[in-house]
Design brief:
single chain; 285 residues; alpha/beta; 434 Repressor (Amino-terminal Domain); Endonuclease, Chain A; six-stranded mixed sheet; 12 helices; 6 strands; DNA binding; DUF5753; Cro/C1-type_HTH; Transcriptional regulator with XRE-family HTH domain
């Protein structure tokens, strides 16, 4: 299904581009929107900034139409396209059925519609490649989830994310794993290594291992994910530090992380050599 997260980001970006094309400030637009809408307290520069930044959960179609009036967008088909985008952005994503098990749903909302995902992981196996047992160990290991029912829900939610591999146009997924992530897999979780070998045999999935003995590398500061989408949506870089999420969208930021990924991928073992290293690690357990 369509991701309301991606639609929300698209609507915010398009509205921001309309304003920037006119060269107007947020304050000027808010003042004009206030006059046109007849709502003295309905508009402010901060409201417009939140709308343009995607910092909202629901948007009023009338507000979108008011902004289109301000920006001089009069073509009926263009206006209807904006309203339809707002309508889709207001829908509930599939992740809502899992409560707060997937956080705000922003990441999985983008993940669910990505055409390509590239990830570097320094300490653990990426969520889309995890077995239920490994996911349970990772989630319970942070010490924040003690309730068994909540733990089960979080594991189920993580497994549900794998639908990106079975949709009509499966995502192309490439992972570079630091060898440290493999070394942290205990004998009790050895099925995770077998699962990596199985997943890596699929044509749309690539797995490379970056050996520890290669020394310092371009991504020493931590893991990151690069998600690309069908046009017209631009790529997004996702960073996670403890419980904080950060999304980068500026062209220069995207380019920087794409270069970092290229460097890390070049330092990693080939796909075939990586498979052999995973087999060796499995045999050692």
């Amino acid at each position: 299904m369509a991701s309301p997260t991606l639609r929300r980001r698209r609507l915010s970006r398009l509205l921001r581009e309309q304003r920037e094309e006119l060269g107007w400030t947020a304050s000027k637009v808010a003042k004009e929107a206030k006059a046109r809408s007849g709502k003295p307290r309905g508009w402010s520069a901060s409201k417009l900034t939140r709308l343009e930044g995607g910092d909202w959960k629901r948007v009023n179609s009338d507000d979108v139409l008011t902004l289109l009036d301000v920006y001089g967008v009069t073509d009926p088909s263009d206006r209807e396209a904006y309203v339809a985008l707002a309508r889709e952005a207001n829908q509930r994503g599939w992740w809502a059925s899992f409560g707060d098990a997937l956080g705000s749903g922003q990441f999985v909302g983008l993940e669910s519609e990505a055409s390509s995902i590239r990830t570097y992981e320094s300490m653990c196996i990426p969520g889309l490649l995890q077995t239920p047992e490994y996911a349970r160990a990772i989630i319970s290991g942070n010490g924040l989830v003690a309730d068994e029912d909540e733990l089960t829900t979080r594991v189920d939610a993580r497994m549900f994310r794998k639908n990106v591999f079975t949709k009509t146009k499966p995502v192309t997924f490439w992972a570079v794993l630091d060898e440290a992530a493999l070394l942290r897999i205990t004998p009790a979780l050895s099925d995770q290594l077998e699962h990596l070998l199985h997943m890596g045999s699929q044509s749309n999935i690539g797995i490379q291992v970056l050996p520890i003995d290669r020394g310092p590398h371009a991504a020493m500061t931590g893991q990151f994910v690069i998600m690309e989408f069908p046009l017209p949506d631009p790529p997004v870089v996702y960073l996670e530090v403890m419980s904080e999420e950060l999304y980068l969208e500026k062209p220069e930021e995207i380019t920087r992380y794409q270069h970092v990924y290229d460097y890390v991928q070049a330092e990693a073992l080939s796909v075939s050599d990586s498979r052999q290293l995973i087999r060796d690690r499995l045999a050692s357990l």
